[in-house]
Input
Amino acid sequence: MPDKPKVAFYWCASCGGCEEAVVDLAEDILKVVEAVDIVLWPVAMDFKKADIAARPDKSVAVAFINGAIRTSEQEEWVHMLRRKAQVVVSFGACANSGGIPALANQFKKEDILKFVYEDCPGIDNPQKIRPQTSTVDEGRTLTLPVLHNMVRSLDQVIEVDYYLPGCPPTPKIIMSAVQAILAGKLPARGTVLSPDIALCEECKRKDSKPADLALAEFKRPHQVQIDPEKCLLAQGLVCMGPATRSGCEALCPSGNMPCTGCFGPTSRVKDQGAKFVSSVFSNIVPKEEKDIDAVLDGIPDPIGTFYRYGLSKCILRRKLN
Amino acid sequence: MSFEPKIVAFFCNWCTYTAADLAGVSRLKYAPNVRVIRVMCSGRVDPQFVMDAFAKGADGVLLGGCHPGDCHYAEGNYKTLRRMRMLNRMLKDMGIEDGRFRLEWISGAEGEKVKVTVNDMVAKVRALGPLDMPGKFKEWDKEIEELEAHVNSDAPTEVAHAR
Ligand code: SF4
Ligand code: SF4
Ligand code: FES
Output
């Protein structure tokens, strides 16, 4: 019997939700486990770095990597996995575009460390001790990874072959990707493994989305009684559907919440946030600066709203200074 | 060497570009720092274009269109105004100074306004200094150059994460 293809899972700056998504495959996970040989999966199995380092180059068929890259340790791991794997799949929003961790690109590293280790209300650290990359304790040197100045997507650090979008990717798109990989039926390198059309196309509320949105006000979900049938954008809620790739089957609008954009943009769009602004804000009602500004005030945090999962992939990449 | 700002200008075909033409025909002198890109309407300019211009090295971006009510396509410039009000907020949040991006309505008859606007913008951007996003990108990525070579060397030793 020929060897089963070897598969590695790895996590970087992530919340564990992408691991959960793999477990959420439920019975399907058994089919996966049967078909492949898992050689690395830190959340579930006890393999060490040395085990992977000892493998010949390109001996792992596929590496699924989730999480953004923030530390030198993550960086080192992904370079190693790139070397060992034939195919690298960027798994989930954080790996694809920085995800929630990338919101930290609005702040300087020093400000983050100062807040976390000194100013945060829950901290008790009178000596203002900060983690050090190297500490000598009883004659032994202990090291910690370097925290980089910014959060990067996986493809800003290594070459990526395919992308699975979502926060986290849904069982359906994971399974179809796994099946395509096992069958050797993969599309062109660089493809995002989810339909290349806007989310609105698969949203049940689509028919109530007017061609001309004519929005006079933006509201946040807690401020309104949300109509369960009508297009959320038409109700004045920031629904990222028009600038987001489909594939999740409009999970959030189906649950009566606006899409926050976790699947990232379609292939024609370079910058999801800027594109959303382009398409939706052109159609707000007012024509005078002052009235326009009053409508825009309804969105107090534009960067955090339009780049909730993708600030690493904003054309500008991070806040300056 | 003194700093010469690079300004990318998107001018709509029907008004501002015509005005820039008029400024030329009238031999009005204005700062040579603008690279004009003609678009059919200011409404064609996606906020992505503005960000991309900065990312590719522009120190300033100027967007010119017809006066409100005069857009050749009726509503194009209103769409522009609304988008760009939001873009302004986003650029500010991303640390790009006020004055690096500017929207002006300049009709086909206002050659003089092209001159005044360009000169004023060049002076202000010169005072702000270079933006140099391509240089910043390079600088930012220096922190991830070292490890790649280390991991891909043929005899990787246990890596010292501390640097
Ligand atoms: S904007 Fe949102 S609610 Fe409206 S159709 Fe698109 S995805 Fe559905
Ligand atoms: S509706 Fe939007 S935010 Fe919700 S899962 Fe789908 S892509 Fe993600
Ligand atoms: S044609 Fe000039 S702004 Fe639309």
User: Anything to note?
Assistant: The mean pLDDT of chain B is 93. Residues 16 and 106 of chain B are 5 Å apart (CA to CA). The radius of gyration of chain B is 20 Å. The longest strand of chain B covers residues 7-12.
